[in-house]
Amino acid sequence: MSSDLHTGFNEREYPHINRGLDGIVAFSTTKSFIDGKVGDLIYSGYHIDTLAEHATFEEVCFLLWNDRLPNTEELENLKQKLISQRQLPEAVLSYITTTSKDAEPMAVLRTAVSMLADSDATFGKYDESLFMDQAIAITAQIPTIIASYDRARKGKEIVAPLKEGSTAFNFLYMLNGEKPGKQAEKTMDLCLILHAEHGMNASTFTARTITATMADMYSAVTGAIGALKGPLHGGANTAVMNSLLELSKQGEDADAVAFTKKKLDNKEKIMGFGHRVYKVFDPRGFHLQKMAKALSEETGHEKLYRWSMDMLNTMKSEKDIDPNVDFFSATVYYSIGIQPDLFTCIFTMSRISGWTGHIMEQAANNRLIRPRALYVGEKNLDWVPVEKR
Ligand code: CMC
Q1: Alpha helix (H) ranges present in 249-301?
Q2: pTM value?
Q3: What residues are in contact with ligand 1 under a 6 Å CB criterion?
């Protein structure tokens, strides 16, 4: 067994295979740092706890796109640009209102983001000097796509975006048709901050891989949305909620401990637990847990928090596995009235900032991403004519 990191593997010898690219360092980045042993997360120099306490989502976008915090004028400028780009092109609105009402919101979001390229004056072509404006436009339009589709599928009138207010405020307004209170805006803003960036996760890796071929930013973001959709990645928050809703069918006294143990006995994964990098409690989870407790009590969903804690304790004692970011975010979103199948869309609305930061970083120092695979099939088979197979 041998492999050579510098020249690639020898085709005739058996190389070491890192399944799932576990532990492979493929890039250097200034976007985020994760210490999975102690549970630390830093975005471009700032600890997640510091950002959770002080920042707004718009400041985090600027940080991830420029590797520094904005001054007052720069922040105002970015906010105004985001506000001015919130409207959707007619073709995208028409798609949203005519597509199936039973479609998965993440599938609609993926298609709509791809369509945005056609309405971009540059047709979304690959040009580094356009990337910042494209990042701002996509970040501004994703919340409008999500809210518009949710209303369209429910037969409600689409609410046009506001010409003022934060991303969080405007999103809740477009979704519910009424302006949110301070607390709801703050909760949504904090969720956006906590999900914005997270190293070389599957969707970010996808975005960088597509960018490395010199395909455009819309293609990279569309691919990233496809990767985020899966239940092992961003789709886990919806899956967590489905587990909690399954439990609620058993009534107020549902036994979350027995539910969890039964799934483990059946060798099923418990959604919202485990992580490739964190081997301790996910630092974003602390903030979400605090919010989940307070919001579930305020909104009469205490049982969701109680069951979540029973699941958490069972996973700790049975498997020594901690919850990840998706676990408590499910209760938070549900408590503020968001439908479970929109949870991953909200993750997208936030992670677009990290993806586009990585896309710009990849383009600035590009090399095609092209790993190898070990061929384990047969060789030198004799050709058999089709009628004899
Ligand atoms: N439930 C039960 N067992 C688990 C779980 C889980 N959620 N996660 C890991 N394990 C076990 C796994 O069965 C394996 O056990 P064994 O060694 O006995 O076979 C061991 O822990 C190692 O797991 P793994 O699947 O090799 O770990 P991985 O790094 O390949 O996968 C993961 C990481 C996140 C895909 C996995 O933990 C998982 O499927 N979790 C559930 C889905 C989920 O919550 N995903 C969200 C991920 S974090 C946020 C995000 O990306 O959106």
Answers
A1: 256-265, 283-298
A2: 0.95
A3: 20, 201, 232-234, 236, 269-276, 319, 321, 324-326
